[in-house]
């Protein structure tokens, strides 16, 4: 069986900003150190959780370059470089490769709703422009378009460096179909924390996690137990996390997780418009209550 390059927990990192709305490079460094020391398998800068749509091109490039620098080869960096414009995604992906990223994460083109043929041509053009592995990111709820399984498999056959998918379709049946049809070296990672164990139980390989920003060690232990076949122990940990997983989406991601990170002083509670602080303070109270439960278990990583 071909070895899978991508297994385990890859943290979809928040992008910390200062109170003056600049990239907080020192906070980013400290977050990366904590993630690595907590045992995550990889880092994903500039994804949805990293507020990539509101980063300037210079900030986007800088965040990826700094993540590579701070990680210093200790864990892989899977840089978010997708766009709804193919030329822009190519430029971002080439830059990520140039600064040393180990892989790129390519979200579905959003808003313009391409056909399956358009999706194939889009992802093939990006994959052909770089030598590093490409992981596709299928999230219809954010982008308005679904990568059908046949399209995904055709892309993996046409492009040897398309080596996995972050599956956030929300459909366990689609996930199972991808796992069943993919070649042996193709990684299938959950894009939803609450489906991570279901995906692993179906033969998948791990998760690109939002929750692991604040409890990286706990999430890593749970996922590695599952990958090692101890699903009963993993499920017991999942019960502890279920309320927090739900709280992470009380309002649009990354509002809850960045609020959680700010509570424990990892970053400022600072967002780029149109993202903003909690609209409903009751949601903050629910989030804090779930954090307190995890903190009592020693699951929260403190700064």
Q: Could you please describe the fold and organization of this structure?
A:
With 303 residues, the protein is an alpha/beta fold. The protein has one domain (8-230): TIM Barrel. Helices cover 46% and strands 12% of the residues. The protein has an 8-stranded parallel beta sheet with strand order 2-1-8-7-6-5-4-3. Helix 8 links the parallel strand 7 (187-190) and strand 8 (206-209). Helix 10 runs antiparallel to helix 12 (281-296).
Keywords:
globular, 303 residues, alpha/beta, TIM Barrel
The total count of helices amounts to: 12
What ranges have pLDDT less than 50 throughout 5 or more consecutive residues?
none
Overall structural domain count? 1
At the fourth level of CATH, the homologous superfamily is: Aldolase class I
Question: What layout of secondary structure does this protein have?
Answer:
Elements: E1 8-12, H1 25-37, E2 42-44, H2 57-71, E3 78-80, H3 86-98, E4 103-107, H4 116-129, E5 134-138, H5 140-143, H6 149-158, E6 162-167, H7 172-181, E7 187-190, H8 196-201, E8 206-209, H9 216-227, H10 231-247, H11 255-263, H12 281-296
Parallel strand pairs: 1-2, 1-8, 3-4, 4-5, 5-6, 6-7, 7-8
Helix pairs in contact: 1-2, 3-4, 4-6, 9-10, 10-12
């Amino acid at each position: 069986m071909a070895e899978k390059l991508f297994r385990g927990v890859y943290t979809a990192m928040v992008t910390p900003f200062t109170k003056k709305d600049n990239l907080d490079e020192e906070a980013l460094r400290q977050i990366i150190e904590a993630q690595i020391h907590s045992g995550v398998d990889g880092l994903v800068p500039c994804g949805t959780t990293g507020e990539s749509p509101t980063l300037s091109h210079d900030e986007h490039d800088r965040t990826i370059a700094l993540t590579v620098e701070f990680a210093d080869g200790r864990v892989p960096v899977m840089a978010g470089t997708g766009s709804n414009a193919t030329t822009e995604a190519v430029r971002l992906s080439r830059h990520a490769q140039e600064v040393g990223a180990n892989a790129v994460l390519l979200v579905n083109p959003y808003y313009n709703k391409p056909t399956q043929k358009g999706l194939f041509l889009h992802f093939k053009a990006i994959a052909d422009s770089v030598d590093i592995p490409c992981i596709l990111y299928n999230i219809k709820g954010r982008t308005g378009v679904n990568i059908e399984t046949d399209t995904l498999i055709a892309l993996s056959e046409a492009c040897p460096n398309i080596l996995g998918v972050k599956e956030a379709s929300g459909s366990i049946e689609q996930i199972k179909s991808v796992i069943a049809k993919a070649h042996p070296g193709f990684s299938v990672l959950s894009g939803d924390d609450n489906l991570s164990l279901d995906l692993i139980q179906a033969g998948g390989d791990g998760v690109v996690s939002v929750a692991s920003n604040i409890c990286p060690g706990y999430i890593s232990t749970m996922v590695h137990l599952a990958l090692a076949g101890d699903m009963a122990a993993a499920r017991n940990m999942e019960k502890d996390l279920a309320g927090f997983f739900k709280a992470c989406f009380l309002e649009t991601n990354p509002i809850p997780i960045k609020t959680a990170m700010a509570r424990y002083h990892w970053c400022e509670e600072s967002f780029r418009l149109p993202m903003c602080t909690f609209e409903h303070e009751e949601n903050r109270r629910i989030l804090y209550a779930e954090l307190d439960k995890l903190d009592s278990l020693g699951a929260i990583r403190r700064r």
